[in-house]
Design goal:
- By secondary structure, the protein is an all-alpha fold.
- It is 82% helix and 0% strand.
- The protein has twelve helices and no strands.
- α2 packs across α3, α2 packs across α4 and α3 packs across α10.
- It is globular.
- The termini are far apart.
- The N terminus and C terminus are likely disordered.
Length: 250
């Protein structure tokens, strides 16, 4: 009898330890996991909302980690999937509304002032939309950067809201489910994953560095191009001035 009682108790102890283990991981990945764990399923929705409006926050990082916690028993998997898609759709509606009410150019100039956001990304999303039409709202959800910003030109062109909503919800649901379920699969094997925490942290650091460096390089190139254009305009003006002055000297 004693043995029979002790075995379930031991099992319960292990299960409780397993559930708590993911939040005990160290490094950057551990910090992100703790943040998502603390915010819960609604926090995932909030992160996906912000990610949609503010592209440099990648869903490729948020969703697998949320799925990882769900796989480890820290979150409800179905709720994560539903709320993540709801957050994506809410963010898409904000950009759609900005495009429809404020206009593409004004919104682009305004959002382009945010850190790590480049106006060229908005114009690439607009080009994608104008090339592919309404289907761009669906297929664009699977393309980095375009995924977040395609809603702005859709709103500016007054795409039918029902079609926009349907394409956005279905495509976002597919994308979110793929990433969350991938993370959930690893969450059931967190002991093995924990052994690779250092490598996961390195990947996150590299991803952050790539985003920052890319942004800085693009801003420097834009500044250099603007400076060359200004010098060229001044040079052309000086040349015209000299040509006007020559007959007077004669």
């Amino acid at each position: 009898m004693t043995t029979a009682v002790a075995a379930p108790a031991h099992t319960m102890t292990v299960a409780a330890g397993d559930s708590a283990a993911p939040s005990d991981m160290g490094g950057l990945s551990g910090l992100v996991l703790q943040l998502i764990d603390a915010l819960g399923e609604w926090g995932v929705a909030l992160m996906l909302f912000v990610e949609t409006v503010f592209p440099p926050i990648p869903s490729e990082v948020i969703l697998p980690l949320a799925g990882f916690l769900a796989g480890a028993g820290r979150m409800n998997l179905v709720l994560v999937l539903v709320l993540a898609t709801l957050g994506s759709y809410a963010g898409a509606l904000v950009l759609y509304w900005l495009g429809a009410v404020i206009g593409f150019e004004r919104t682009t100039r305004w959002l382009g002032k945010l850190p790590l956001v480049d106006e060229d990304d908005f114009r690439k999303a607009a080009d994608w939309f104008h090339r592919h039409g309404r289907s761009a709202v669906f297929f664009g959800r699977f393309v980095p950067i375009v995924r977040s910003l395609i809603s702005l030109p859709a709103g500016a062109d007054r795409m039918n809201l029902w079609s926009f909503s349907l394409f956005t919800i279905i495509a976002s649901g597919i994308w979110n489910s793929a990433l969350v379920l991938l993370g959930a699969a690893f969450g059931t094997q967190y002991e093995q994953v924990e052994a690779y925490t250092e490598w996961i942290d390195r990947v996150l650091y590299v991803a952050i560095a790539v985003v920052v460096v890319t942004f800085v390089v693009r801003r420097i190139r834009r500044g250099s191009a603007g400076a060359r254009g200004s010098r060229g305009a001044r040079g052309a003006s000086d040349g015209r001035g000299r040509r006007r002055a020559e007959p007077a000297e004669d």
